[in-house]
Structure formats: structure tokens, C-alpha cells
Amino acid sequence: MSYDCSADTKSLYMHWPFCPYRCRFCPFVAMSGHEDHMQTYHAALMCEIDFFTRTYTSDKAIKTLYLGGGTPSTWPTNMLLDMLGILKDVFIFEQGNEVTIEVNPGTVSKEQPALWRQAGITRVSVGVQSLNDGVLKTLGRYQTADDVYRLIPQLADHFVDISIDLIIGLPGVSPDEWKLQLQRIVTWPITHLSLYFLSLDPFTRLESDVRAGRCEVPAEQEVLAVYYWSIDFLQQHGFIQYEISNFARPGHESKHNQAYWERKTYKGFGLGAWSFDGTRRYQNQKSLMPYIQGIQRGEYITEVDELLTPEQVRLEKIMLGLRHMRGVSLVDVLAGCSETQQGLVQETIARLVQGNLLVSCAGRLFLTPAGLAVENAIAAELSV
User: Fold this and answer.
1) What residues make up the domain containing 329?
2) What is the model's pLDDT at position 211?
3) Burial of residue 171, with CB atoms counted within 10 A of its CB: 0-12 exposed, 13-18 middle, 19 or more buried
């Protein structure tokens, strides 16, 4: 099977896998030292886009476009403009569309922000992660805090919507240092923050270091206390939490990410990119040369092709709904359950409400601050 080209797709994702270096915690489809393949990869990506646009039959008005990676700020400007031009020849980008590019400090030239803005990019997401140079070195990131301090005002000259990513629970960052860092960051000209818990993904160098005792991460309770403090602090400074990891000034929430959380259709292009057409989920080939050669030969480049079962759909709705501050509908939680299962789920809900992990109101379920930190476990309990 292939992506349903009659699906009403409003969100597009472009993957640029190239990085100047590989971070020690990175589990994504990204690579360093392959710059010689940029032109060939770009050509293959353009072929993939062309094939889709020639077969796509639904409305061509697009609401969001996300350029992710990898490090899209290393995308050569002529290639980036070429890609955006091809998209605009086919799709309709209207006033209010959100076009996001991910960048890493230390990889952005003085000229790039103005060129991005002129090309129609409206939002920049900056991978800050930490302002501690020693911690950044532990993570294998070659950026420095000074790179960040230079970049933010440079972006603010051209963009209103600037988002930054930070990681909670990094080795070597005390609660006091985290608080001082966040107190500084809220004074910046930014409209959005994403705060992610450190994930020690298998086969990453950081996970190996922690497992071998070469590196120590903070205790879970310390990390949770920092997270709860951050929620309150950011709200006091005008950043409202609208999803477990995301905070925004009103009206500046990420439209693209909300399409994912609301299970809307989206089409991904490039190495390892995911797509969802409403019934099936797909992932492109994750190896560089098989992807490029497959495109050149006109072959099917999908590595994962999964028809979602009703139970998978139910679980996704529970997990994604709980992550968002709008919560999840009780109707979705109970969908497809037998009378016996419904009784068990209702008992679970009552127990979680009693334990101050869940709130039930007007036919919807919402996580409490304590519940936010254990969302996966709660979703698993409700999916029984």
C-alpha cells in the first residue's frame, strides 16, 4: 500500500538528516560526515515530492510545513529555496500558514535568517538544550552558550515566533542552576518553549555512559520537582502549558505539532520520515543510500507500512489526548470496550482520580500536574 493521495492533507514534513556532529543522546535519523551526499539527497527528496504532487488529488491548501532533522540550518540556501519553490508551485500557502525550521546554535550564518523569512519561513525552533558549556560537551554538542546568546537577537530581527528546546534532567545540572537558566531565558524575545525530559535511548552513547557508570543523571524525584517548579514559573511569566512538554505565549502554540496530537493527516518526505493518512502509518527507508537509490529507480521506499487496528487507534487517542491540556474524551477512552471492560476502565479512572493523578470533568479526562509526569503509565492503565 502507499499513502492515500485523496486524504485531505494539511501538514507536510521535510527531513534534512545531515548534522555537523552527532549528539551523544540523539536517537533520530541523523548523520554527520556525509556532507558530500547533500546534493544527491536533495535531488532524491525533490523526486519524492514530485511523485507525490503528481498523484495528490485532494485540496492543496496547506496549513503547516515543518523542516526537521538532523540540522536543517545546514541545508544549503540554494537547495532550501529550490524545495520551497517547488512546494509553492503546487500547494497553496495562505496568510497565517506556519512554516517552521529547526536550527542548532553555531550553525546559522548572519545572512540565513533574513533569507529564510523572505522565503516564507515564519517560525524558528532552536535546539538550546542547556546553557552550561560543560554539560553541552558531555552531550557531544559543539555549540556554546555564547552561540545561543548571539543567535536569539539575530533571529528576533526577522521572526516573531521563536521557540527553544531545553532538556530537563541533564547530568551536571543542579536544580538551582536550572532555575537560574530558566529565569534568564524568559527574558528573551521568544514565544514558545519545549521542555523535554532526558531520554536515555538504547544504543546512544549517553545511555551507554550512564549504564557503565561513567556519567550520572539526577534522581527522578529531583527531576520531577524541577518540572513542577518550571510549570508554575513559566505560567507566571506568560508561557501557558498546552501539552506535557510545550509552553507558549497565548496564540503562539505550534500548529504543526498539534496536528500530530489531534491525529490529523500529514505527509512526510525524506529519510526516515513518517506519514499518516488517517488509517495507515508509514515510515520511509532510514538508510541513506537505499533511500537515494530507491528514489532513483522509482521503487517503493517505505520501510514501515502499518494499518492501525481499532485498539491501536483507541490507545493513540488516549495517549495523545492525555498529553494535551484539553484532555481526552471519555467516549474515546471507552470506544470498542465490552461492558465488562468499561466497568474495569471506570474503576481505574476512579482510582486515578482518588490518587490525584486524573481529573474527570464534563465527559473528559485531564491529567493533574502529578499525572503529567507519569502519562505513559496512566495511558497504559486506561487502555486495558
Assistant:
1) 310-382
2) 73
3) middle
Same domain, 219 and 134: yes
Choose among 383, 382, 355: nearest CA to 368. 355
Residues 256 and 321 in one domain: no
What is the number of domains present in the chain? Answer: 2
**Residue for grid cell 538504547:** 202
Instruction: Scan for cell 488529488, then name that residue.
Output: 57
Element (H, E) at 183: helix 175-185
Q: Please tell me whether residues 226 and 327 are part of one structural domain.
A: no
Per-10-residue mean pLDDT, the chain, length 384: 89 95 74 89 96 90 95 95 93 91 96 96 97 89 94 98 95 94 98 91 73 78 93 97 96 97 96 96 96 93 95 94 94 93 95 95 93 89 86
Nearest to 186 by CA among 142, 138, 220, 236: 236
Measured in residues, the chain has a length of 384
Which residues have a Cβ under 8 Å from the Cβ of 39 and sit 6 or more positions away? 79
User: Do residues 255 and 342 share a domain?
Assistant: no
Domain boundary among 261, 286, 321: 261
Q: Are residues 205 and 353 in the same domain?
A: no
If asked whether residues 88 and 15 sit together in one domain, one would say: yes
Q: State the pLDDT at residue 377.
A: 92
CB atoms within 10 A of CB 81: 16
pLDDT value for 104? 95
Q: Does 82 reside within a domain?
A: yes
Reported in sequence order, the residue ranges of 198-353 that DSSP labels E, i.e. its strands, are 240-243, 246-248, 266-269, 274-276, 280-284, 302-307, 328-329
Alpha-carbon torsion 141, 146, 150, 156, what sign? positive
pLDDT at 103: 97
- pLDDT for 108 equals 96
Instruction: Return the pLDDT at 24.
Output: 66
- Domain termination residue (choose one: 261, 296, 329): 261
**What pLDDT, on the 0 to 100 scale, is given for residue 149?**
97
> Looking at residue 317, which CATH number applies to its domain?
1.10.10.10
H helix or E strand, kind and range, residue 176: helix 175-185
